[in-house]
Design a protein that fits this description.
Layout (H helix, E strand, L loop, with lengths): L3 E4 L25 H12 L3 E7 L10 H17 L6 E5 L14 H10 L7 E4 L2 H10 L3 E5 L2 E5 L1 H4 L6 H12 L6
Parallel strand pairs: 1-2, 1-4, 2-3, 4-5
Antiparallel strand pairs: 5-6
Helix pairs in contact: 1-6
């Protein structure tokens, strides 16, 4: 089984939009530089890197699924140009209560686990809110809370040596310190 770095998108990979608003176009997308370092560190430690993101703006008609896919292709290309390769992106386009994939429900994580043969307890989820924390708890994934590229909290599971091998512990330590790429 494989280990995975799960990343929320808005607020982790890119700057979060103001409350109630959505990132609809590339011009509104602002990549957070710290995520490049995190992805590179965890990929070097043998992890997959997968984005899991709620995108309710599609259900609300704020933007189309085609717009989202184009934005994700640009995001992947920008990250790859900096040596941060994403293995996959899972998104939920549904309204609240309409599915089992909208975080904090586990649908996207289960899809990723089945597709990529992921060991959830040996993985890490980096998120910026309560939905991400609840998702991690429900799936038994160690969790790190971040905001604006800075780690605010590393959950007990993510700190436990029995859960994280040495390379993972080193990568989590680097995330905690907010090291730039190459350090």
């Amino acid at each position: 089984m494989r280990r995975c770095l799960f990343l929320d998108r808005d607020g982790v990979v890119n700057a979060a939009p103001p409350a109630g608003e959505y990132i609809r176009r590339w011009e509104e997308f602002r990549l957070l530089p710290e995520v490049v370092s995190w992805i590179r560190l965890f990929k070097a430690a043998g992890f997959l890197a997968i984005v899991i993101t709620n995108q309710r703006g599609i259900a609300l008609g704020k933007h189309s699924e085609a717009d989202l896919l184009m934005l994700h292709e640009r995001m992947r290309a920008e990250l790859a140009a900096q040596g941060a390769i994403l293995d996959d992106i899972f998104y939920c386009p549904h309204a609240e209560g309409a599915c089992n994939c909208r975080k904090p429900l586990p649908g996207m994580v289960i899809q990723a686990q089945q597709k990529w043969d992921i060991n959830l307890s040996a993985s890490l989820l980096i998120g910026d809110g309560q939905r991400d924390r609840l998702l991690a708890e429900r799936c038994g994934i160690p969790f790190a809370l971040v905001r604006d590229g800075r780690v605010l909290e590393i959950g007990q599971m993510a700190q436990a040596a029995s859960v994280t091998p040495a390379a993972t512990t080193q990568a989590i330590g680097a995330v905690r310190k907010g090291l730039p790429a190459g350090n």
